[in-house]
Amino acid sequence: MRGTPFFAAALLASASPLAAEVPMAIAASGHATVPVAIDGVGTFDFVLDTGASESALYDPFVAEHDIPVGESEDQLVGQTGAVTVRIAALPRVTMDGHSAEGIMAAILDARPDGVPLPGIIGLDLFGDAVLDFDLPRGRAAILESGTVPEGMEEAESVAAAPTLGELLTIPVHIGDVEALAVIDTGARKTRINWRLGHLIGLDPSTLDAGETIQGATNMPVESLEARIADVRFGDVTLAEAPVLVADLPVFEAFGVADRPAIIFGMDWLEAVRMVIDFPERRVRFAVTGR
């Protein structure tokens, strides 16, 4: 994510009738991707990321497609730290019939896992709309704000609050502990901080090593892994759920380092459909199976 001035720079618009939905696939990296068209360049499978206030391109993709990069730079804040990045002004970008012009995309270094993803699509494309993120069915849709998709009418509407870069947060309960969760579909695995870990009784001496978290900035942070019980958000209860535990720098950036906090990732949505109305700041969840 970058600062809010760049978030405001993109001109968001529905330039054509919204499509019914687009397929959502899981890339070799484990991320959820959707087809995104860039005028004059082509259509490619981008990571669909509610945890990115602005979109980004990976440097190998920029080089392969001769995308012009300006001289301006900006600070990119990722889960594991902040780096200075170059910026590319993109032509019209479209997903599911929903378009934006003036997107200022950060240029990211090549992924350390070698997966040739083109980039990340963030709130500067869909932050003025409803995002229907249906991982169990492998599809996504962008709808007009105020729309409640079919099948979600009875789901509880959870009030969300904005944090850095206008990312949305919701309350999540683990047992009798309440935590603040940033909704981040760009995170393959959910992360919690140690403030929350200690409150729910996790002991670092008893946990196995988790994966190395690198995020968009490729700055490694080690984690521990655990399974936690009785996770509740909206109408959904997960009897058991996986987490990585680490005090990531982004918790400080979000201003929640001193309180129980979660980066709510894709693994908690394997059997759950999620619908986010960004302008209304409302989120609905429904268990639909897999």
UniProtKB/TrEMBL annotation:
Domain of life per record: Bacteria
Keyword Signal on entry: yes
Entry-linked Gene3D superfamilies: Acid Proteases
Signal peptide span: 1-19
SUPFAM superfamilies, per the entry: Acid proteases
Keywords, sorted A to Z: Signal
Protein name as it appears in the record: Retropepsin-like domain-containing protein
Lineage: Bacteria, Pseudomonadati, Pseudomonadota, Alphaproteobacteria, Sphingomonadales
